[in-house]
Amino acid sequence: MADGAIDTVLACFVDMQGRLIGKRFHASYFVESAYDETHGCDYLLANDIDMEPVPGYRAASWKKGYGDFVIKPDLATIRRIPWLEKTALVLSDILDHHHHEDLPHSPRGILKRQLARLEERGYLACFASELEFYLFDETYESARGKHWKNMATASPYIQDYVIQMTSKEDAVMRAIRNGLFEAGIPVENSKGEWGPGQEEINVRYAEALEMADRHVVLKNGCKEIATQMGKAITFMAKYDYTLAGSSSHIHNSLWSADGKTSLFYDPEAEYGMSALMRSWVAGQLKYAGDITLLLAPYINSYKRFQAGTFAPTKIVWSRDNRTAGFRLCGEKSKAIRIECRIGGADLNPYLAFAGLIAAGLAGIDEKLELEQPFEGDAYGGAQLTEIPKTLREATDMFAKSKMLKSALGEEVIEHYVHTARWEQFEYDRRVTDWELHRGFERY
Length: 443
Known about the structure:
Structural class: alpha+beta
């Protein structure tokens, strides 16, 4: 091939954990055949983060023989990956092997079905997810060798917005910003966050499916670029009890089908919030507990919800108040939107966006009235509704949600409840370092 030409195509889909899974194709074969479809084992949407085939799924099992599903490239998503030599990446949908329809439990398919519900009403959803992560002066190998203890962060101090400190890290962050931008992801900025070596990267808002696609490519790209530069990154929601957690705040709004008119903005209304927006936000508040599993999918996710850490603990909305679970942004402007602050950096964006859309639509359909905004320190609001404190609590609320069963389908609910309960089971039977430290001598 000519110098600079693409010789490798990554045909990827997103698994339940939000990771890119797929195959590396020689470009000539992709153009000849694989652009239409390829295949993968259906256990890839029925396993855990260790790639362990999990028993008990209805969709895939040893009893069913772990057959194939179709990996269908969405050619609208193809992009060059500048940090990988002569490589392009395309995201794919996961289809049933027999009738070629989206698998019900496929994360991208779940979001697409919620977007179809919006489209039927003439609504267009625009989203932006802000990702936070910790950057380490370690490789993944050295971090593993230290058993993930006493790792050197890129900065020894909290560096929130501090230019002088983040300049020390900018070799990596500049490579990330520029690499992602050249891959077609419109990075707006990066900044230091409220933890030593903690970073945030912001991408321009987009239609919801496009934003979810950007999110997963960004997350994968950050890790790959850091690895190439001898560094390590973690997107754990709470990698250290003593430090700030890492979030994925999600901004969302509804627009006209042509994307030109904000359906959330009413210049005559209080705070500039249209009646449609008020019902949408009221739905997200009412069903925030139901959808928390989609915003916080792991045991570790719930360690982040601590008072006084900029992570929310209460299901309440407020005007430009970072102690609340939902924050009004862009008040009295066409940029008006609601920011959900519950999600951690470990979420799967397709599932999180789908949950927020389902809750917002329920608020519209039920004609919910929005309560008055909370004022003050939400951490101290004793009478305010709590965000579920554990994965077990969030799973139970998700499993019992009539709204989600109607919006997502019982098959999806069953699949992701099983996923969450397996995660809980795996944790419950492990002996942790905390238990050893606390009890080895003293019990």
